[in-house]
Amino acid sequence: MDRFLPFSLPDGLQLGCATAATQIEGGDRNNSWYAWSQIPGHVRDGSSPFRANQHWTLFEEDLRLMSDMGIKQYRLGIEWSRIEPSEGVFDDESMEHYRSEIIRMQSYGIQPLITLHHFSNPIWFEEKGAFENKSCIPVFRRYSAYVVNHLKDLCTDYVTINEPNVYAVAGYLYAMWPPGKKSFFTYLRVMKYMSLCHLHAYRDIHAVYGTQPVRVGFANHMRVFAPAGKNPLDAAAARFMAYVFQDAITKSMSTGCLSPIFGLGRPLGKGRFYDYIGINYYSRSFIHNFSEISLPGHPKNDLGWDIYPEGLSFLCKKFYQKYHAPIWITENGTCDKEDTFRSAFIYDHLKQIADEELPVERYYHWTFIDNFEWAEGEDAPFGLVSCNFETQERKVRRSGTFYSELIRQRKVTSEMIEKYLRGTSYGNHA
Q1: Separation of alpha carbons 396 and 165, rounded Å
Q2: Backbone Cα Rg of the chain
Q3: Please, which residues have CB within 8 angstroms of residue 119's CB and are 6 or more apart in sequence?
Q4: What crossing angle do the helices spanning 342-356 and 310-323 adopt, rounded to 10°?
Q5: 281 in helix, strand or coil?
Q6: How many helices (H) and strands (E) does the chain have?
Q7: Which residue segments constitute the domains of the chain, with CATH numbers given?
Q8: Residue 427 has pLDDT above 80, yes or no
Q9: What SS3 state is found at 29?
Q10: Does the bond joining 179 to the residue before it have cis omega, within 30 degrees of 0?
Q11: What confidence score (pLDDT) does residue 84 get?
Q12: How far apart are the two ends of the chain, measured CA to CA in Å?
């Protein structure tokens, strides 16, 4: 049977792209990731988010390019350190800049999905312990309220917090990200308080909009945790790690009922705290002795992440059965410096969505343009568009052209397979 077959996108599925403010904007030294990048060894290639894609000044060029590609759904972040540069002091000029950008994208027919927190904190908030302390809740609510009140006439869709599990694991278990701590109990405390921040923000945003339409949720990093072999202990470890990493936080943030590892009870009472199921999906983790290992013979991307498209439909089914809401794939993409298999990656994951007939309303490709990829720096390209960071030249990749054609035609045709996919495989990355 042919490796690639034509298929059509489901009628209700909209395709878009996603970025994060700290990773693309440049020009800001007042955030936790800039401070972290100034310590040698924290970012693999020695770069910092101060350069990035200079999107803060070049957003018109990026939006025009996005429009030329036919993209009509765009998930973008707000940089908290620009909005509230010092505690309790808000910068109306920065807020007006975001309004101008959103008005411009809407003039191109592009619909924004606003992310309020995407890994980065203002320096003053980081120095106060960020989400380690209960005091973070009124602080986050104040920031969220300011942003939402300034965007309510323009926007109807929000992500309160992006990947609280990754933020907590990388910053408080593995010390790979700021603040660079290693404490399981602090990790649990951070997850608890981020949950509470989301729960409050969800209710607050709905209160601001009243009877006007608004959709609020969170974007959680979901993985398939699989035992590395037939040992039942590895199977048990895989289930435990899935619970601690993603299942417990999803339950807490969705239902308002804290999972036992975080706390007890329903601090905000009984309710539903999501309007869609947000899934960021990239990879599968093989577990042996409560550790993730790499198994040979499985395709991998440039960062060594396991490529497993079937995991997307597995997770969509799992969380839809639990939470029964429209699914938004808020991130999905791959690191592929030579752009040799990104088109196949997109094809395989979208075909999973098409074949399973699940209520997936949106798919946001990560990412629009190569960016500052956190601890990897500038040398981990996920973009449909390449960026020369020295010259800031943008160029649509072959995979970006494939995605653009897919958006326009709403299907993968035999001609597209011949043009973009024939001979493509992950074989060299196994």
Answers
A1: 32
A2: 21
A3: 20, 22, 33, 162, 163, 166, 167, 177, 374
A4: 40
A5: strand
A6: 15, 13
A7: 7-429 (3.20.20.80)
A8: no
A9: coil
A10: yes
A11: 98
A12: 22
